[in-house]
């Protein structure tokens, strides 16, 4: 697929590096670009002369697609379609992102979220087609597509059905998170912009465990995350176990943030962020090799997103330190100190400082409580002792003739459950006496 990149900015020099990366991630070969610095033209986004230049460039390069890094309105898409050769598709950055999401979506939830985002994007275009049709202007030429009188209501019905199914999936996932927490697991979530290295870091944190071992240890663990130098390799959530003695920690990788996302796209994927909002600790991963202004902007946006609903502590992880020297790293630490007051600098690729990150995770997670329980010697006592070995750090078990004393430390929720089980054992022993 041969594509022309088009971008307009109000002032300054247009930067097309990100849209080029997105196009490559979607499988396009960029064969040219048209940029302009001026106020948006309400009809064409670009000025009329520049739009004609774009059409000439499409012919000259035999491009099949024009990708705008701007958000195109329905009528702008239609008008541009009229200028370009027949069969040439016009898409904007959000349609492009949806294409990538559609290619990468593997789970039912991710596929539904992509479909929901596509429908939310299509709805105003369906409304525009209705308006054009009433004026007897029939859109086509790969602009808005053909007119279908019933399409608008069909989209609204589909959106409603998908929302219902996503809600059912989220309820199931919430029950899964609760089971994990009740089983003594601390929940850590990786957040940050796409391509910051979250999936690589996840694999590094769980490097001592294979996926098969994970599955044996806990039936709810998900398949391993891919680590690729591509945008959006993680669309759903991926969970693996990290070994931080004496804790049992589950680390979840999530879909990456991307700049300038419209509300309808954020809404479509917001349930993916629930695993971030409901974690015990959030690791905000940043690519420290990027320009300082870009890192700053991404941190601000990430904090705005996370602080909206997140209550867990946030630790900033400056990743990819293998790409910067010590002096540059020190300068960036200092410049970002207000947003990231005590970051951990690591290289997920090289494994540098990962031990320090594991120690920091242990420090930031909720403190464990120490407990000493006296259990009566009954038929069910050993099952409780076994449960404590599985869900807590048991320091000592002392067996007497008529009772068992267990000393352990665990998450507060596990301590509470253990006390409840001990009480049930004592009640049952008293009733049978």
Element layout with pairings:
Layout: E1 2-9, H1 17-25, E2 29-37, H2 48-61, E3 65-68, H3 74-83, E4 89-92, H4 93-104, H5 108-134, H6 151-182, E5 185-192, H7 198-205, H8 211-217, E6 238-244, E7 247-253, H9 263-268, H10 274-277, E8 281-287, H11 292-307, E9 314-319, H12 326-335, E10 344-345, H13 354-364, E11 369-376, H14 381-391, E12 393-399, E13 403-410, H15 412-432
Parallel strand pairs: 1-2, 1-3, 3-4, 5-7, 5-8, 8-9, 9-10
Antiparallel strand pairs: 6-7, 11-13, 12-13
Structure description:
This is GTPase HflX. Belongs to the TRAFAC class OBG-HflX-like GTPase superfamily. HflX GTPase family. With 433 residues, the protein is an alpha/beta fold. The chain contains 15 helices and 13 strands. The chain has helices at 17-25, 48-61, 74-83, 93-104, 108-134, 151-182, 198-205, 211-217, 263-268, 274-277, 292-307, 326-335, 354-364, 381-391, 412-432, and strands at 2-9, 29-37, 65-68, 89-92, 185-192, 238-244, 247-253, 281-287, 314-319, 344-345, 369-376, 393-399, 403-410. Strand 1, helix 1 (17-25) and strand 2 form a beta-alpha-beta unit. Helix 1 (17-25) packs parallel to helix 4, helix 4 packs antiparallel against helix 5 and helix 5 (108-134) packs antiparallel against helix 6 (151-182). The chain starts with a strand and ends with a helix.
The whole-angstrom Rg is 27 Å
Mean pLDDT, to the nearest integer, reads 81
Shape descriptor: elongated
What is the structural class?
Answer: alpha/beta
- In whole angstroms, the N-to-C terminal distance is 80 Å
Write down the secondary-structure element order. EHEHEHEHHHEHHEEHHEHEHEHEHEEH
Number of helical segments with 4 or more residues: 15
| Quaternary class | single chain
Ranges with pLDDT <50 over ≥5 residues?
139-143, 208-235
Which percent range fits the helix content?
A: 40-55%
Q: Which strand order do you get reading across the main beta sheet?
A: 6-7-5-8-9-10
Strand content: 15-25%
How would a textbook summarize the main sheet? 6 strands, mixed
How many strand units? Answer: 13
Main location: cytoplasm
Domain Hflx-type G: 186-369
Protein name: GTPase HflX
Pfam families: GTP-bdg_M, GTP-bdg_N, MMR_HSR1
């Amino acid at each position: 697929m041969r594509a022309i990149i088009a971008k307009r900015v109000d002032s300054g020099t247009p930067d097309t590096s990100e849209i080029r990366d997105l196009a490559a991630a979607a499988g396009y070969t960029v064969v040219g670009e048209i940029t302009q610095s001026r106020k948006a033209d309400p009809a064409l986004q670009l000025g009329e002369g520049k739009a004609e230049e774009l059409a000439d460039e499409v012919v000259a390069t035999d491009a099949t697609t024009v990708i705008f890094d701007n958000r195109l309105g329905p009528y702008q898409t239609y008008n541009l379609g009229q200028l370009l050769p027949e069969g040439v598709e016009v898409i904007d950055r959000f349609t492009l992102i949806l294409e990538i999401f559609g290619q990468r979506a593997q789970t039912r939830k991710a596929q539904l979220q992509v479909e929901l985002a596509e429908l939310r994007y299509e709805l105003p275009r369906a409304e525009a087609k209705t308006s054009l049709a009433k004026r007897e202007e029939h859109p086509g030429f790969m602009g808005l597509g053909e007119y279908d009188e019933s399409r608008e209501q069909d989209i609204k019905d589909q959106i409603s059905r998908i929302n219902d199914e996503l809600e059912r999936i989220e309820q199931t996932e919430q029950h899964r998170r609760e089971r994990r927490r009740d089983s003594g697991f601390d929940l850590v979530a990786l957040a940050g912009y796409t391509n910051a290295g979250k999936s690589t870091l996840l694999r590094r944190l769980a490097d001592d465990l294979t996926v098969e071992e994970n599955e044996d240890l806990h039936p709810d663990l998900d398949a391993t995350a891919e680590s690729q130098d591509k945008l959006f390799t993680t669309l759903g959530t991926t969970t693996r176990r990290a070994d931080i003695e004496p804790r049992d920690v589950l680390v979840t990788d999530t879909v990456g943030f991307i700049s300038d996302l419209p509300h309808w796209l954020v809404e479509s994927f917001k349930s993916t962020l629930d695993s971030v909002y409901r974690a015990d600790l959030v690791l905000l991963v940043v690519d420290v090799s990027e320009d300082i202004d870009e890192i700053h902007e991404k941190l601000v946006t990430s904090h705005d997103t996370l602080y909206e609903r997140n209550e867990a502590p946030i630790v900033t992880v400056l990743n990819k330190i293998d790409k910067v020297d010590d002096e540059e790293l020190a300068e960036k630490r200092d410049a970002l100190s207000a947003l990231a007051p005590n970051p951990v600098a690591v290289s997920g690729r090289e494994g540098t400082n990962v031990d320090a990150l594991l120690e920091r995770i242990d420090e930031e997670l909720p403190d464990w409580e120490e407990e000493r329980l006296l259990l009566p010697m009954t038929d069910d006592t050993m099952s409780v002792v076994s449960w404590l070995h599985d869900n807590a750090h048991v320091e000592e078990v002392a067996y007497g003739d008529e009772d068992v004393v267990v000393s352990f430390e665990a998450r507060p929720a596990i301590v509470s459950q253990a006390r409840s089980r001990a009480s049930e054992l004592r009640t049952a022993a008293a009733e049978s006496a």
